[in-house]
Write a structure and sequence with these properties.
Length: 162
């Protein structure tokens, strides 16, 4: 059975402050909070908190699927997977990325827009998993990020026995 992981792509969005993150939460706690709530994390290797993400992964409560986008640090990131049980996926611009409207196959990472339509989310989840070659991660894309869509996807995955 394939493992599927869920997260939000735009984890640094200001829209998350106050709605998802407690307004009094220090910014440097946000990565740890996300790792408690989601089991997939998208990080741009050039992000201002990329080093903090690496540090937080060492103390994460459970293994995570981490997409390191356009990484120049492949050798630095990969030991985090081996040493801590995380799946580190270093994604380059030519790496397949699945989207509901695409005909991509063999993608381990996918993006869906926010939605509150369970039938649509189920169809997207099933289509993504049908083409994924093993353990994969599906991220909710868009601004503002929708953590509610992530929760809906996780519920659907549980109901489907994934």
């Amino acid at each position: 059975m394939k493992a599927v992981h869920f997260g939000i792509r735009n984890r640094q969005s200001p829209a998350l402050a106050g709605g998802f993150f407690d307004p009094d939460m220090p910014a440097d706690w946000r990565v740890a909070f996300l790792l408690n709530e989601h089991d997939a994390l998208w990080v741009d290797a050039e992000a201002d908190d990329a080093e903090r993400v690496r540090e937080e992964l060492a103390d994460a409560p459970a293994a995570a699927f981490v997409v390191v986008d356009e990484s120049q640090w492949t050798d630095d990131w990969l030991p985090l997977g081996a040493d801590y049980g995380h799946t580190i996926f270093c994604r380059r611009s030519d790496t397949p990325l699945w989207r509901p409207e695409s005909d991509v196959t063999g993608a381990r990472v996918g993006l869906v827009p926010a939605s509150d339509d369970p039938a649509r989310l189920k169809a997207w989840l099933e289509a993504f998993l049908a083409q994924a070659p093993g353990s994969a991660a599906l991220f909710v894309d868009g601004e503002p990020p929708s953590t509610a869509t992530v929760d809906r996807l996780k519920t659907l995955a549980d109901l489907l026995g994934l």
